[in-house]
Amino acid sequence: MKKLSQNFIWMSAANIVSSIFNGLIFIYLARTLKAEAFGKFSYVQSLVFFLFNFIDLGLSTYGLREIAKKRDEIFEYVKTIVSLRIIIASFLYVICIIILNFVPKGISFKVLMSLMLLMLFSSALATEWAFQGLEKMHMVFISFSLTAILQFVLLTIFVRSPLDLWAAPLVIFLGALPIIIIFLRILKFNLEIKNFNLARIKTYLKSAAIIWAIGLFAQIYNGLDVVILGLFRGVEIVAYFSVARRFIGGIIFFTIFLANAALPRLSSAFKEDLQKFKIATKDFSKLMMILGILLFIPLILFSNQIISLTVGKAYLPASLSFRILVLAACLVLLNLPFSTGLISAGFEKEVLKQAAACAVLNLALNFVLIPKFGMEGAAISFFFTEALGLTLILLAYHRNIRQKIIF
Fold it and tell me: Which helix (H) or strand (E) holds 128?
């Protein structure tokens, strides 16, 4: 399990460094843009992030898993997957720009949305998943760290007041390009359009469809709460909740990095050696429990101080929502080793069922609780969603895997 430990270390380092600078970006924007402009930025960002699911289509996770099994085919996977994602991103961008012309919003919203949509292309061109498949996690560290540092530096230069709101998404997009270009050159990427292998694409999409659906449903209950909140409450309330959401989202994002570090190792272990799979899953579970204890107790006890010291006292109304989301994130940590194990073992359909059930429950609860309780209602919805998710994943894991491996 030495390689798995190394993967965890590199992915942890990548997330820690990038999280520090992404946290600084978040704090800087919250303080510089102020609540109203930051609320607009967060709302538009949530809309665009939801579209990411329709670019990836589960292909990055599928490509990661397949490269782990067939490393000599990495260049073919990268060429086909990235080319397809560029085509999809271009199509989505054009469609969204056309729709914007008919949306009854001011010109400032349309400009902000148009610039934020450029992030569709940075998502399409990202190739960290290929290096994860090769278990070269140090490349992920380089990418995430340098990109976050560059974006932070550029934001401090070009975004100095709420009037610079329009510049924020443009700077974030441009800050991602240098590493993207370097990685594409390393992976010998050539855009494939004329000679597109439709048969190969069909195979990729068929295999990735379930993984994509999982991501789509997960995004529904991890991102649409901000959008729904914006429908019923003002932009300042969206800004407050976004603060709480971003804190917890950063931690959850970190755990997803660890899951991606474990996925290629678990995939090969399940196929070749169930004993190694058992040990890796146990180690992953222990790590998540320790992380939960070390992080979330202080976050609950010192939530007010954390909010005040980072984004300022103006965002203290988010404190109660923050604590509720912390408890929900604990459930995410307990869930992750088993959902990752199911995917690595080929039981994606079980995770899909869980994600779909969670999405339905979350949407229903949000539309009931947000009008009555605002951002606290959104936080409560997320907690009950994650409680259902953990229950369903544990049942699926016991039914499909635990009976094969006696722990």
Answer: helix 128-133
Q: What's the confidence (pLDDT) of residue 371?
A: 92
Q: Enumerate residues 6+ apart whose C-beta is below 8 A from 244.
A: 318, 319, 321, 322, 325, 375, 379
Interatomic CA distance for residues 347 and 133, integer angstroms: 19
Residue with tokens 């995770």: 351
Asked, for residue 219, whether it belongs to a domain, the answer is yes
Residue 106 sits in which domain range? 2-401
**How far is Cα 153 from Cα 171, in angstroms, rounded to an integer?**
10
Both tokens assigned to 198: 């439709």
Give pTM, 2 decimals. Answer: 0.66
Total domains present in the chain: 1
Per the structure block, which two tokens stand in for 343? Answer: 């995917």
Chain-centre distance of CA 133, in angstroms? 18
H-helix or E-strand spanning residue 405: none
Asked whether residue 407 is assigned to any structural domain, the reply reads: no
Residue 406 lies in a domain: no
**235 has pLDDT over 80:** no
pLDDT recorded at residue 70 = 80
Residue 370 domain flag: yes
